[in-house]
Design brief:
556 residues, mainly beta, Porin, 18-stranded antiparallel β-barrel, two-stranded antiparallel sheet, 11% helix, globular
């Protein structure tokens, strides 16, 4: 018997019927374990299909991503009780189309719900920007009914911020805003020069800070059951408008695809992952999936979620239009534990060795120098991450990363370990967190983090760092706090950090040594209005950096 996880009792669908992602009517996330599927009939067709799907999944995993095979969603209601096959159709959920930025307030809300055990640890493994529909389903699972908003909670706040207009099969979400920004002290990473003796890094340069009044608008649309799109336009005073995000999308079952421009960020920490931190938009396309289960013995890996991004950058050093591929795969063997793999590679391009299937296979398996491919052909960064809910109100996370391939994961590793305490008894609306990040220096013929010879811009897009904000060799210690009452129209969060950068760092020698910084954000929600104030500073070695933003956004 096929079982589907339904958001609310009494709103069933015919057995075997699924919903496309862009129609936003999928069953929500849940925490109950999945019972083994029923055996196939006398013809053994089910078993042959299962192994066929497993073969496809293994091939895609070898390439850094997994496909959406055997989409069996977990069957439970909000309390974790199994639900049997429903029999009647239900109306669509008001899940809005579009994307959420990496610094949206819902990311902290999801972390808090995972720490308290009301969401599985796998919820923290979402790639950001995240789809609004996926985030709303997580909040709806907390509220207990994905078809009815809790006006006094996070779900009600979310629905007010992203009010959806439905006209027949078309759903529309839009917003318009304006604000002011003042900033100074930005640094852009430099380039690497290859000499006969070694690689020499030129050092960072001062970047241009955008200041003054800005305007922004955003629109997302769902067309029927399978199509959609989103655009975000930013305009600065006396400058031409620019497309921050523009995507066309299609979804079928648990799989969705997009093409256009958008950011991508992987890893369990919202302050930055080793591979991608989510602050750089890419021109290309990608595929992402809802959670699904692999067939056969692979079902023991739990619910699987995948993301794939394929893009081309403008240039890296003297190499024009190199390819960029990033993948993220996460597994949830239980409600309290999830683990994932993140990997990205920059390769090829005009002026580099031609891209061939053989060279792609060598890159996939981490083989650096060979007779078929020089190590200058690609630059890649990878990491493993884990999230664990060991006790109520606690969430422990870690990410272990490495630059380059071979034995770099032993010789030149990077490690982040952090913990989150959500809702202590003496302050239920408060969350406290701490993390430590360390990135090793070069060793044993393995280069320093985030630099490369032929792809001379290193792990950046025209000087803008793709990975962890530490920038390479060094140490960072941070403390986080957040106050976000479920029933109040206000959210505040902040961060204190100290960094000690080594010489092998993209921001050295300008910021060689110790710096200390602070970040704070306050958001208020009144009807369809969201008002935000954001302050950031980093002082110490090198030029002081600071920024201040005041923004008001109206949901249309």
């Amino acid at each position: 018997m096929t079982r589907l996880a339904m958001p609310a009792a009494g709103s069933p669908v015919p057995a075997g019927q699924g919903w496309s992602r862009l129609d936003h009517r999928q069953p929500r996330i849940d925490t109950a374990p999945l019972r083994s599927p029923a055996p196939a009939g006398p013809g053994r067709t089910g078993r042959r299909d299962g192994w066929h799907r497993a073969g496809i999944a293994i091939c895609m995993l070898l390439l850094g991503s997994a496909g959406p095979v055997a989409a069996r969603r977990l069957p439970s209601d909000a309390a974790g009780t199994a639900i049997q096959t429903p029999t009647r159709p239900r109306p669509p959920d008001p899940d809005p189309p579009g994307w959420l930025p990496p610094d949206h307030w819902t990311r902290h809300a999801i972390d808090r719900l995972a720490a308290t055990g009301r969401l599985p640890a796998a919820a923290t493994a979402l790639a950001w920007p995240a789809r609004r529909a996926a985030v709303r389903r997580l909040l709806a699972a907390m509220a207990g009914d994905s078809g009815r908003a809790n006006a006094s909670g996070w779900l009600g706040r979310f629905d007010a911020e992203f009010h959806q207009l439905n006209v027949g099969p078309i759903g529309f979400v839009g917003s318009a805003g304006a604000g002011a920004r003042s900033a100074d002290g930005r640094l852009l990473a430099g380039r690497t020069i290859t000499t006969p003796a070694r690689l020499e890094y030129t050092g960072p340069s001062r970047g241009i800070e955008r200041t003054g009044v800005f305007y922004e608008s955003e629109a997302a649309v769902r067309i029927g059951a399978h199509l959609g799109g989103a655009v975000e336009l930013n305009a600065w005073q006396s400058e031409r408008p620019e497309w921050r995000r523009i995507t066309a999308e299609a979804g079928f079952g648990v799989i969705s695809a997009w093409i256009g421009r958008r950011e991508a960020g992987f890893g369990p920490f919202r302050d930055g992952g080793f591979v991608l931190s989510g602050g750089v938009p890419f021109d290309g396309g990608g595929i992402d999936t809802d959670a699904f289960r692999l067939p056969g013995f692979l079902a023991g890996l739990g619910r699987v979620r995948t993301d794939l991004v394929v893009a081309r950058l403008e240039r890296s050093g003297d190499i024009a239009h190199p390819w960029f591929v990033a993948t993220h795969v996460s597994f949830a063997p239980s409600a309290r534990v999830s683990f994932g793999m993140n990997r990205a590679a920059l390769f090829g391009g005009s002026g580099n060795e031609p891209v061939t299937l053989g060279r792609l296979l060598l890159v996939t398996f981490g083989i650096t120098d060979s007779h078929a491919k020089d190590s200058d052909f690609e630059n890649q960064v990878a990491s493993l991450d884990v999230a664990w809910n060991p006790a109520p109100k606690w969430l422990v996370r870690a990410e272990y990363g490495f630059d380059d391939s071979g034995l770099a994961f032993i010789r030149v590793p990077g490690l982040t370990v952090g913990a989150l305490l959500a809702g202590p008894a003496w302050a239920p609306a408060l969350s406290l967190g701490a993390s430590v990040t360390g990135i090793a220096s070069s060793c044993c013929s393995y280069p320093a983090w985030y630099v490369h010879g032929a792809l001379a811009d290193g792990w950046t897009d025209r000087g803008v760092l793709l990975g962890h904000p530490l920038g390479g060799n060094g140490l960072e210690v941070s403390f986080d706090w957040a106050v976000d009452p479920v029933s109040a129209p206000i959210a505040a969060r902040g961060r204190l950090f100290a960094r000690d950068r080594g010489r092998e760092n993209l921001f050295s020698p300008d910021r060689l040594g110790r710096t200390a910084g602070a970040e704070a954000r306050l958001e208020t929600f009144t009807g369809r209005w969201r008002i935000e104030a954001d302050l950031r500073t980093e002082n110490g070695a090198g030029p002081d950096r600071w920024s201040a933003i005041l923004r008001a956004v109206l949901a249309l």
